[in-house]
């Protein structure tokens, strides 16, 4: 399939053809296989649709800096929904980290599409804005908060966009691990997260890092008022990148909160606590699909 501006997007569909659809939207420097645990579990009963963001996985890597923005994030999601859902079909749409930002950006920019394509939404370890004020991996005294924001922005832009020189994988892996997973995470989870990071082209990493810093870096927020469908918000107690404060802000801002879930662990709850995440996705899918059946009967 292709995006509205012609970028080729890669998507895959798992599970029964007649199954209720769940769409999975991954985070920055990841790819479809970050959802391995969700796909293996949920595809037994649901039709699971997952895609790679532009600049990630098997999707095309735009070379122009202007090809990465919250507008593109929203439009690409809309293109995937249009290509993979039948006319009039609605789904549960779940996004992790930048995937949650994609869903919120889509709802803000395409409000009429929310009720047309979504029965419910799950926002996992994500944020609605003020990204740089909330990061917890760079602690400074309160009077130096402005310095922290500027430094965090520069670090994310730089670390996201530079190629990874050979010989310094140790420090890089430690930094990615600190941001992405909790201290008690299985080493295999850390290995997968870092592997996905290194496999993401520097152009894609940098393009999206700049887009996020520029779009929701400091005192900038995505409007949540159009997310009118039942919304599950999942945050983690030790998420250093998008801490629990971000999840609670979203829960306070969405008009139709179904549940706020607070898990242990770090930023990658879909890998660290997959059974819990899967359980809440199933509950949401079963609830909204049952509601639809009641209305149509």
TrEMBL record:
**Is Hydrolase a UniProt keyword of this protein?**
yes
Please give the Gene3D superfamilies that the UniProt record associates with this protein.
Answer: alpha/beta hydrolase
**An MF annotation (GO) of this entry:** peroxidase activity
Q: What keywords would UniProt list here? A: Hydrolase, Oxidoreductase, Peroxidase
**In this protein, which residues make up the domain named AB hydrolase-1?**
20-272
State the GO CC annotations. Answer: membrane
InterPro entries in the record, alphabetically?
A: AB_hydrolase_1, AB_hydrolase_fold, AB_hydrolase_sf
Source species, domain of life: Bacteria
Is Iron-sulfur given among the entry's keywords? Answer: no
Annotated signal sequence is none
Q: What is this protein called?
A: Haloperoxidase
